[in-house]
Design a protein that fits this description.
This protein has about 450 residues and is α+β, with helices and mostly antiparallel strands. It has helices spanning about 1-10, 25-35, 60-70, 115-130, 155-170, 175-195, 205-235, 240-265, 275-305, 315-335, 335-350, 375-385, 405-415; strands spanning about 45-50, 75-80, 100-105, 135-140, 395-400, 420-430, 435-445. Among the domains are: about 155-315, Up-down Bundle (Multidrug efflux transporter AcrB transmembrane fold); about 385-448, Alpha-Beta Plaits, CATH 3.30.70.
């Protein structure tokens, strides 16, 4: 694991935040834009500037022009669209207090990190420092909406809670620690392999999350299969080393079967033919495979190494009480099976009812903590430009056969503006070859 970790640290590549859905209409439009209108499909960012109450943002145009010029000099910036441009409407709010500076960025198709975005962020911070007190300048947009997965204190708390629960159930902190050690080891190896392969394959930034969650869950579960059998045999007086072998020989088959079932199910994510889901399923399946291997190899070695320390202390009175409690519960559920079945089914239906109101969406900055920079920009844009500004739509138009491409685009723009749910259509323009047109539509509702 240490060797793999060292290799991963030395040779890992960036994670990707891009995903595609083959044959989807939106994917076809994006691919067409990338070929015929690359600037329309570029990674974007937006700087929103909000003047203090009682002031107009264009009062500070000299400072804005300076910031725009500085942004244009950055290597990562392909194009800057200032709020006073005549090409795009709606970059200044109706109240005049807020303005948006749009940026087209180029990071070679990879997901930009916070450090890579730092030069752009610094220009925005310098602009805010030059403007009067009370002015807000915040960076948002697609590039800043990316929040790479990372470990937080929540994962640590989860492991601590698992240790406490296992200690209570097993009655030994030594026994409770083994499933956690093996689970973390399996996940660590899988993560090292994944990070190492990022230099070769395009791996989505959400992939590690599923692998870590499943790896820890099944790693603890599979270890408990074998560990419980081992402790039962030790309680019967079996030698620790022989018991470890027998535990793997008996409970190990259940671990292999359970792991194989989960492995196949995760590979089934590829049936959807969505590349990032396929990759996510493959690496999650690999993590499960490592959990099985660790449970069948590393865990028995640990059990043998711990020897007599794993032997549970005899507690005949408690065991007798536990058996009586379990027998009573089994008797209650089997005495009236129909009532038990109906009760369980009704209970499950009641628990599932809230799912009828479930709304599915992709992650947005609106779901981040209120003090996060991307969330601040998201809220400011929603407040001053409407919720739809955070989820604009792109319409592509084939205009190669038109004798009046500008007139055609303006006509389509006017038709779209009459549709329900459309807030505004700020942009309708052809590409340099005048064979494809792009129309940007801002809906009245946001992406949430």
């Amino acid at each position: 694991m240490l060797i793999l970790g060292g290799l991963a640290a030395a040779f890992h590549g960036p994670f990707s935040n891009a995903f595609s859905i083959p044959s989807a209409q939106s994917q076809e439009a994006l691919e067409k834009l990338q070929m015929t209108f690359p600037e329309g499909a570029a990674l974007t960012a937006m700087a929103i500037v909000v003047a203090p109450e009682g002031h107009q943002v264009m009062e500070y145009r000299p400072q804005l022009e300076k910031a725009v010029a500085e942004m244009e000099q950055l290597d990562e910036v392909d194009m800057v669209t200032p709020p006073w441009t005549e090409m795009v409407d709606g970059l200044v709010s109706e109240s005049g207090r807020a303005a948006i500076i749009q940026l087209n960025l180029d990071f070679g198709g990879s997901t930009p990190t916070e450090d890579q975005l730092a030069p752009i962020t610094q220009v925005a911070e310098d602009l805010e420092a030059e403007l009067p007190a009370g002015t807000q300048v915040s960076m948002g947009g697609e590039a800043y909406n990316i929040e790479l997965p990372h470990f937080t204190i929540i994962e640590v708390i989860g492991l601590v809670v698992a240790l406490v629960v296992l200690t209570v159930v097993l009655g030994s902190i030594v026994a409770a620690g083994l499933p956690l050690i093996t689970a973390v080891t399996g996940v660590g190896i899988a993560m090292a392999v994944m990070f190492l392969l990022t230099s070769i394959f395009d791996i989505n930034s959400t992939t590690p999350l599923l692998s870590v969650m499943l790896g820890l869950a099944v790693g603890i579960d599979y270890a408990l299969f074998i560990l419980s059998r081992h402790r039962d045999q030790l309680a019967q007086g079996l030698d620790p080393e022989e018991s470890a072998g027998r535990a793997v020989g008996t409970a190990g088959s259940a671990v292999v079967f359970a792991g194989l079932t989960v492995f196949i199910a995760l590979l089934g994510l590829g049936v959807a033919n969505i590349p990032f889901l396929t990759v996510m399923g493959i690496f999650a399946a690999v993590t499960v495979a490592f959990a099985v291997i660790i449970a069948l190899t590393f865990l028995p070695a640990l059990m043998g190494f711990m020897g007599e320390k794993m032997r549970p202390k005899p507690r005949p009175e408690k065991q007798s009480q536990d058996r009586k409690a379990f027998r009573w519960w089994v008797g209650v559920t089997t005495k009236h099976p129909v009532i038990t079945i109906v009760t369980v089914v009704v209970g499950l239906i009641a628990l599932a009812l809230p799912a009828l109101g479930l709304r599915v969406s992709l992650p947005t900055p609106g779901q981040q903590l209120p003090d996060q920079p991307a969330r601040v920009a998201y809220d400011l844009m929603s407040e001053h430009f409407g919720e739809g500004i955070n989820g604009p739509l792109i319409v592509t138009v084939d205009i190669i056969g038109s004798t009046d491409p500008i007139g055609l685009l303006n006509s389509i723009k006017a038709d779209i503006e009459q549709l329900d749910g459309v807030h505004q259509v700020p942009l309708a323009t052809p590409n340099a070859n005048v064979d494809t047109g792009m129309i940007q539509v801002v809906p009245t509702t946001g992406p949430d």
